[in-house]
Amino acid sequence: MSKQTLQIVKIGGNVINNETVLNAFLKDFAALKGPKILVHGGGKRASEISSAMGLESKMINGRRVTDAATVEVVTMVYAGLLNKNIAAQLQKYSCNAIGLSGVDANCILAHKRIVKDVDYGFAGDVDAINSQFIHLLLQNNVTPVFCAITHDKNGQLLNTNADTIASEVAIGMSELYLTDLNFVFELKGVLENIEDKNSVIKEINSKTYPKLVDKGIISDGMLPKLHNCFNALEKGVNKVKIGDVTLVKESIKLYTTLTL
Ligand SMILES: Nc1ncnc2c1ncn2[C@@H]1O[C@H](COP(=O)(O)OP(=O)(O)O)[C@@H](O)[C@H]1O
Ligand SMILES: CC(=O)N[C@@H](CCC(=O)OP(=O)(O)O)C(=O)O
């Protein structure tokens, strides 16, 4: 039997911080037919709230250094405020959303990120997705909304990059579905020239990708995003796209497609 298509959409911090844009996007997302999953970040809001609490935010290579105080703040912001607000807006648009962290029903198991020379604290890298439980929700017309909080099965909460959550969920669900992964952010796609908002590169493949990195065209947060895109394609995800909030509309023509 052929697999059903599953849409996985990730929204980032700049979209989440603009209430009007976020609501318009959530209305379109709610109208998407078929099984779907929303993954949200919210790094920008977490940095603002940390700052208001007198905590400094430190990012290294696109990932937040998450000390004991920061893991408390990000859990409150991602798994509480943002996750529940997004689920409430989707309910308003008649999408039966369930706001979840990776802890709930052991949906996303992770381990503390260990890399040479950098102590990221309670930042997590993903080990496993509970695809059977997520499948159960989807089959009952429930739409999971995941935030960036995971756990290590030893009682420790971990903060995981939301792009990584989206690609790992897409990889994990690929055993059951044909998965389409969509990264939604504030620009129309990956740009040839960051000053020209319409200079969207329509297709990036695994050969052109390193050249764009060498030329400095791809930098900052786009580096881990593209790494996650290619990792997803290599591990069986069907389609990967990057674009703005109109990406979930069928009529949209301008975005970046990633291919192997
Ligand atoms: N070539 C590029 N095209 C588009 N954005 C780029 C490019 N190179 C670097 N960027 C930066 O990457 C950012 C997106 O990454 P990030 O801030 O992590 O997004 P999000 O929080 O939505 O995941 C953009 O806001 C932009 O500043
Ligand atoms: C470990 C790590 O970096 N976690 C991220 C999780 C949120 C996120 O990825 O948010 P955006 O998608 O809005 O950037 C962070 O705390 O910023």
TrEMBL record:
It comes from the Bacteria. It is an enzyme of class 2 (transferase). Residues 7-243 form the Aspartate/glutamate/uridylate kinase domain. The keyword Cytoplasm applies. Pathway: Amino-acid biosynthesis; L-arginine biosynthesis; N(2)-acetyl-L-ornithine from L-glutamate: step 2/4. Its main location: cytoplasm. It is found in: Cytoplasm. Signal peptide: none annotated. One of its GO terms (molecular function) is ATP binding. InterPro entries: AceGlu_kinase-like_sf (IPR036393), AcgluKinase_fam (IPR004662), ArgB (IPR037528), Asp/Glu/Uridylate_kinase (IPR001048). This is Acetylglutamate kinase. The lineage of its organism: Bacteria, Pseudomonadati, Bacteroidota, Flavobacteriia, Flavobacteriales. The gene is argB.
